[in-house]
Amino acid sequence: MTEHRATSGPPSHRVAAVVYNPVKVDLAAVKAEIASAEKSAGWAPTLWFETTKDDPGQGPTAEALEAGAIMVIAAGGDGTVRAVAEAMYDSDASLALLPSGTGNLLARNLNLPLDDLASSARTAFAGLDRRIDLPLIDIRRDDQSISRHAYLVMAGLGLDATMLANTNDAAKDKVGWLAYVGALGGAMLDQNQLHLHYNVDGTGNRSVHAHTIIIGNCGSLPGNVLLLPDAAIDDEMFEMVLLRPRGLVGWVQITTKILWENGLLRRTEVGRKFMGLAKEVRALRYIKGREVVLRLERPHEIELDGDTFGSALALKIWIEPGALTVRVPVPGSPS
């Protein structure tokens, strides 16, 4: 259930912190907008913490919380937002977003403005709190070590993880999501399928061969692509999709389903009625749940919110309902 509330406490006692990626943001512009919004809302002076290549945000966020920040503003790309949210799990502080970078996945799924720094700063200091779900994941490696992470939008094995692993970072920074096109072609030609066993909500083990598996907390991607149509950020569940194409025909079915049905038809009442007549395709299978345990026959690359996290041999994903509080605009306020 969606919950909105105002941040408590007298404004002059409220302290915010900005955790920023110096590579992704124009720091002078960010500081100017934060100072303006902070002054208008009557908050105390904002604290500033910089991320590094070795620490994308968890450490600076922990420092911000220890310093008394009741709101942490993530200024950077999806990796910065994910790292900040991971460190904020189990805290009472709110997360605000200053979208930057190429994806802005959480901001897209919250319908926040992506290119309006002033509006984002106003939302941080004068908006409302909204509780959303937070997926946690335990990744077991080939050496049997286990690492735990949080993510906000999607975890993927197969096509998207291979694509990301093959994408040149410099090209991504220069041309954004267009950098994935070349890597996408190579990943689609990859014949190495995932052989795995999975168990959703303790209903029993199932075996499957799939090209790609994506487990999402919400479903929108850049380019107005709705990959997971029934995923909701606050319904206490994830949506998992299995992509199982057989040759070119299978990829055509998947593309038609995602771009035509999910992206266009379901946006209108007439289109939704038409969708009711469409047949399900074997190449695409959707599953809803609260916890999934997945074991692979051999290690495969895994990605979380667009960043590669190495190879996984097994994983467990579960939803922590309402575990993260994010700042959203006041209904009816100008964006």
TrEMBL record:
Gene3D superfamilies assigned: 2.60.200.40, Probable inorganic polyphosphate/atp-NAD kinase, domain 1
GO molecular function: kinase activity
Entry keywords, A to Z: Kinase, Transferase
Residue stretches making up the DAGKc domain: 11-141
Keyword Transmembrane: no
Keyword Phosphoprotein attributed: no
Pfam families linked: DAGK_cat
Entry protein name: Diacylglycerol kinase
Source species of the chain: Cryobacterium flavum
